[in-house]
UniProtKB/TrEMBL annotation:
SUPFAM superfamilies: Nitrite and sulphite reductase 4Fe-4S domain-like (SSF56014), Nitrite/Sulfite reductase N-terminal domain-like (SSF55124). This is Precorrin-3B synthase. It comes from Sphingobium fuliginis (strain ATCC 27551). Residues 3-63 form the Nitrite/Sulfite reductase ferredoxin-like domain. InterPro entries: NIR_SIR_4Fe-4S (IPR051329), NiRdtase/SiRdtase_haem-b_fer (IPR005117), Nit/Sulf_reduc_fer-like_dom_sf (IPR036136), NO2/SO3_Rdtase_4Fe4S_sf (IPR045854). It comes from the Bacteria. Pfam families: NIR_SIR_ferr. PANTHER family: BLR3264 PROTEIN, FERREDOXIN--NITRITE REDUCTASE, CHLOROPLASTIC. Keywords: 4Fe-4S, Heme, Iron, Iron-sulfur, Metal-binding, Oxidoreductase.
Length: 353
């Protein structure tokens, strides 16, 4: 439950939507939610503003589209994030399919625990939140690594499910449930971990080699009509979810339009007012106007909670009683340098008349 109604998170199996699934999801967002679809930093989708009466029908709709498991226990365990450049038959998708086939044997882990399946030539998800990671070494060996540990243990496509299940059991048996996240869990590992993942691939290289153009989505939010329009673009076969505020339009040809997520990832802003009842200020319009005027990272937050960005940003504007507090190199709600600013005053401060 969020301030604007129920929030329903959707994790498409193998991280992609076919055109009929995208259209069905957009219709579901319109019918049962507020018509907006969020793309999360774990490459999942969120529908917001869902009513309690609409919740059951929405879940049935998602199951019928093949976007949710009919068994809630299985659905809760399927917290996987796939490298967005995986393709049918490669190691990333083969591991994902094996994990899905063995999902009933995977113990129920704390809800925030995520599994990154990142078995391409070198990792591309190292900066994306996850707790257990399938990766590849420079020498091409597959490894399974616990977040926070620099080295992983050997694994293979054939043993991946068994190895992950053993690691999940170790995590729970050694008190990982209380730690909450693997990076905070310091118990000795159950098996020798002596393989380093290869250095990460640059995002620009991954997107240049992807199976279609990257389509950036400001603040990671689009409306139902836009989602339907993307699914209907010429030659597009599937929409590939990424954790970088955008979709890869698989099969699409137009590479020029949104080539990089760099600008999108530099600016964070939560939904603000009027979408969130905690907010007393509008956020995303100000962030859009301010972004070209500031260098470095920018965070506009509707209140001190700072939902859109937990890390510090170069410039932070935090809403309070209808105005903004300004901080630098800080998180939302940090002690401000200046208080009580209006949006107009902030824009003037950065050179906009
Ligand atoms: S930061 Fe505050 S205003 Fe923004 S979404 Fe979170 S609770 Fe709402």
């Amino acid at each position: 439950m969020a301030g604007d109604g129920l929030l329903v998170r959707v994790r498409p199996p193998l991280g992609r939507l076919t055109a009929p699934q995208a259209i069905g999801l957009a219709e579901a967002a319109r019918l049962h939610g507020n018509g907006l679809v969020d793309l999360t930093n774990r490459a999942a989708l969120q529908l917001r503003g869902v009513t309690e009466q609409g919740h059951g029908p929405l879940l049935r709709h998602l199951v019928a589209l093949g976007l949710a498991d009919h068994d809630p226990a299985r659905e809760a365990r399927r917290n996987f994030l796939l490298a967005p450049d995986s393709s049918p038959g490669d190691d990333t998708e083969s591991i994902a399919l094996s994990l899905i086939a063995h999902i009933d044997e995977l113990p129920q882990l704390p809800s925030k625990i995520g599994i990154a399946i990142d078995a391409g030539p070198a990792p591309c998800l190292a900066a994306v939140p996850a707790d257990f990671r399938f990766e590849r070494s420079e020498a091409g060996r597959l490894l399974l690594r616990v977040e926070g540990r620099p080295l992983g243990s050997p694994t293979s496509v054939e043993t991946a499910a068994r190895d992950l299940i053993a690691l999940a059991r170790w995590f729970l048996a050694t008190g990982g449930g209380a730690s909450g996240r693997a990076a905070r869990h310091e118990a000795p590992l159950p098996t020798a971990a002596d393989i380093a993942p290869a250095p990460s691939r640059p995002l620009s290289q991954l997107l240049a080699e992807a199976s279609g153009p990257f389509h950036g989505i400001p603040f990671g939010q689009l409306d139902a009509d836009s989602l339907i329009a993307l699914a209907g673009k010429p030659h597009v076969t599937t929409l590939r979810l990424t954790p970088w505020r955008g979709l890869i339009l698989e099969g699409g040809a137009d590479r020029a339009e949104h080539a990089s997520p760099d600008g999108l990832l530099r600016v964070d802003a939560c939904p603000g007012a009027p979408a969130c009842p905690q907010a007393s200020v509008e956020t995303r319009g100000l962030a859009t106007r301010l972004a070209p005027l500031v260098e470095g990272s920018l965070h506009v937050s509707g209140c001190a909670k700072g939902c859109a960005r937990q890390r510090p940003a170069g410039l932070v504007l935090t809403g309070r009683q209808g105005r903004f507090d300004l901080s630098r190199n800080a998180r939302a709600g940090s002690p401000p340098e200046t208080t009580g600013l209006t949006a107009r005053q902030i824009l003037a401060l950065f050179g906009r008349p």
